[in-house]
């Protein structure tokens, strides 16, 4: 009789546990997850502000760009001294010498180029001075998952970190890669060329010197929103989790509160859409093995689903122990 009753308890407990494993995460767990995410984003943005302050570029290295207006004075030759608007190709049109490429040059370099042009055929050792009378070229745009996406105008060169700091830092749903597209001058040919960079956020934080580039002309900084991975089954907080950085199975399970007691740790699955056919692929995962050997941990892709199956025996055992206190309250006494 007692054995039959215990078997019944196991069955009831197992059913109850299975239902609970697929339930919605509690409000407290959601709140804890939100607090953790906000703390992480705050840490990233504090690093951005700190690095921006350390890496700020002084105004003395301003480089002329399209739509700037510059005053060029040639000592003793007032008819050649005037204001010039830099055109979209980065040139100014000057009397006698025609088009002079000035985009990307410092004011000292502009003076040297103009002096060389007039010194070749028209003037002997001309003394040239140049200054910017209207800043128009130093604009950049920040879009995507930042606090203040818009066009920014500055009067000096700006680094990538400074641009992100000016945009108020990244938001909670920011992805792990920053895209930069701008125009920079080729050091050999002197021609403006389109540059496209992909900078991982973690690399920018850890190796700012290598990745904190100076923005070129018409810079567009894009911080795409991150994707999601999903964890379901016998975990403490099943749900969707933002894909940030190099998220792996172990990290995703940690964000989901870890496997429950009744989880089958030796047999989990990753469901992944095939890039070609769109069919679901099934990848087997041994949690105990990758936990003991982290080098075997599996990186997750956007849209991956980690399924944690329930071990029937452990579910029954857990259900039994959850049921025993209730039986005692009802006055049950085993025969």
How would you describe this structure to a colleague?
- This protein is α+β, with helices and mostly antiparallel strands and 335 residues long.
- The chain folds into three domains: 43-58 and 138-223, Outer membrane lipoprotein wza domain like (Outer membrane lipoprotein wza fold like, Roll); 69-134, wza like fold; 227-313, Outer membrane lipoprotein wza domain like (Outer membrane lipoprotein wza fold like, Roll).
- Helix content is 33%, strand content 28%.
- It has nine helices and 15 strands.
- The protein has helices at residues 2-21, 27-55, 107-121, 160-166, 201-206, 208-211, 249-255, 287-292, 312-329; strands spanning 69-74, 82-85, 91-94, 98-101, 128-134, 139-144, 150-153, 177-185, 192-200, 217-223, 228-233, 239-242, 263-273, 280-285, 305-310.
- Strands 7-6-10-8-9 form a five-stranded mixed beta sheet. The protein has a five-stranded mixed beta sheet with strand order 12-11-15-13-14.
- α1 crosses α9 and α2 packs across α4.
- The longest helix is centred in the first third of the chain and has 29 residues, at 27-55.
- It starts with a helix and ends in a 6-residue tail after the last helix.
- Residues 1-26 have low confidence and may be disordered.
- Residues 140-185, 229-275 form the Soluble ligand binding domain.
- Keywords: Signal.
- Pfam families: Poly_export (PF02563), SLBB (PF10531).
